[in-house]
Design a protein that fits this description.
This protein is mainly beta. The chain contains 8 helices and 33 strands. The longest helix has 11 residues.
Length: 451
């Protein structure tokens, strides 16, 4: 039995701090109709709880650097009783600014009391609720500027099957809820979340050797994930990942699928996903600085979720990509590798064929494939926007040759033009502190209605 269960009877919960007011930056988006008319929707964004200051009833840190206070947090129950999750100074501490329909995420921000690296935010419907999207038989569109993102960084926009209220309704310990960015989960089942279901993840906590701000606890938090956009100025990919559990799930041990325990394919989630990366799939002149889709300029990205019968109730059969730049509509690149059928979108057949050709484990199929992804999209998903560097493998899986020990020219290993020596967080943070990504003009509606 997971440890958070027995805590419910103690009447304790993570409290809301008052040291910093919480004012969510506004971010408008548009809901479109089949006729092509779009109506502006009022929205806002909220910073993930993992980035926030956690302290006692005064100003003593419950979590400092990459370690929990042994006095305030010797165990989950005491930690929840002692600690407060506080508001955020979005621009001053985290380098997050919004203006109308535009959101800019800065990389390294020197605040009054600390240096912040990257961020993760969620689109909100109202103060206590994340905006939920149901994507089947619809398209999701946004404009993005990645011109200021070098190798090793990832300006990401994606969806995860989080609870709309941040878990507050299911888990009394999660009192701050969506108002303070709680409830995160993804297909990597991250262990670095300080609170899962409101419960402090202090058991077996180990500071990460390569990250002075992060560590890993006993539990992970898992859910199905649809990566619409993972990119820097050199490479981009879109990727569905699925899990065998419905919604957000707290994992422990083998079910987390930890790679460092050689259990990557034994967990509840498909961590590899089924990715469409033009460079990896044989077209090295499609996306990048000065190329067909020019990453030196803003680009509008359209992702369509096609169903078997053209209805919301149909089976998910295809995930299609379109770009718009400089007034021109640009269809996605086609695969260009011998032995792989020439296609320009993600389908079940593409996933099976590419996994087989590249010699990759087809965990996407094993975990349920398009059927499972369609089920998740029926439930509804939360929009996530983030900027991050990679303390595990330096983002080489996105923009370089990976695995680095693969045979020269091995199919599927060349994912982008960046050097295998690039992307080390210490290098990126010191050499490109002013890096940033800007997302704008989010639109959602029926197919072919948003561009």
């Amino acid at each position: 039995m997971l440890s958070f269960v027995f805590l419910l009877g103690f009447g304790v919960s993570l409290e809301i701090g008052t040291q910093q007011s919480e004012n969510h930056p506004t971010l408008s988006w548009q809901q479109c109709t089949s006729s092509g008319s779009c109506t502006s929707q009022s929205g806002s964004i909220v910073l993930d709880s993992n980035w926030r200051w956690v302290h006692d009833s005064g100003t003593t840190n419950c979590y400092d650097g990459n370690e929990w206070s042994s006095d305030l947090c010797p165990d989950p129950e005491t930690c929840s009783k002692n600690c407060y999750l506080d508001g955020a100074d979005y621009s001053g501490t985290y380098g997050i600014t919004s203006n109308g329909s535009s959101l800019k995420l800065g990389f390294v921000t020197e605040g009054s009391y600390s240096t912040n690296i990257g961020s993760r935010v969620y689109l909100k419907k109202d103060t206590n609720t994340y905006q939920i999207f149901k994507l089947k038989n619809h398209e999701f569109t946004f404009t993005v500027d990645v011109s200021n993102l070098p190798c090793g960084l990832n300006g990401a926009l994606y969806f995860v099957e989080m609870e709309a209220d941040g878990g507050k309704g299911k888990y009394p310990l999660a009192k701050p809820g969506a108002q303070y960015g709680m409830g995160y989960c993804d297909a990597q089942c991250p262990h670095d979340m300080k609170f899962i279901n409101g419960n402090a993840n202090v058991l077996d906590w180990k500071p990460q050797e390569t990250d002075e701000n992060s560590g890993n606890g006993r539990y992970g938090t898992c859910c199905t994930e649809m990566d619409i956009w993972e990119a820097n100025s050199q490479a981009t990919a879109y990727t569905p990942h699925i899990c065998t559990k419905d919604g957000q799930y707290q994992c422990e041990g083998t079910e987390c699928g930890d790679s460092d325990a050689n259990q990557r394919y034994n967990g509840v989630c498909d961590k590899d996903g089924c990715d469409f990366n033009s460079y990896r799939l044989g077209n090295k002149t499609f996306f990048g600085p000065g190329l067909i889709v020019d990453s030196k300029k803003p680009v509008t990205v359209v992702t369509q979720f096609i169903t078997s019968n053209g209805q919301d109730s149909g089976d998910l059969t295809e995930i299609r990509r379109i770009y718009v730049q400089g007034g021109k509509t640009i269809q996605n690149s086609f695969t260009n590798i011998a032995g792989l059928t020439s296609v320009d979108s993600i389908t079940e057949a593409f996933c099976d064929e590419s996994k087989d050709l590249f010699g990759d484990t087809n965990d996407f199929k094993a975990k349920g494939g398009f059927t499972a992804m369609g089920k998740s999209l029926d439930t509804g998903v939360v929009l996530v926007l983030s900027l991050w560097d990679d303390h595990s493998v330096n983002m080489l899986w996105l923009d370089s040759t990976y695995p680095t020990d693969a045979a020269a020219g091995a199919l599927g290993t060349q994912r982008g033009p960046c050097a295998t020596s690039s992307g080390a967080p210490s290098d990126v943070e010191s050499q490109s502190p002013d890096a940033s990504v800007t997302f704008s003009d989010i639109k959602f509606g029926p197919l072919d209605s948003t561009y």
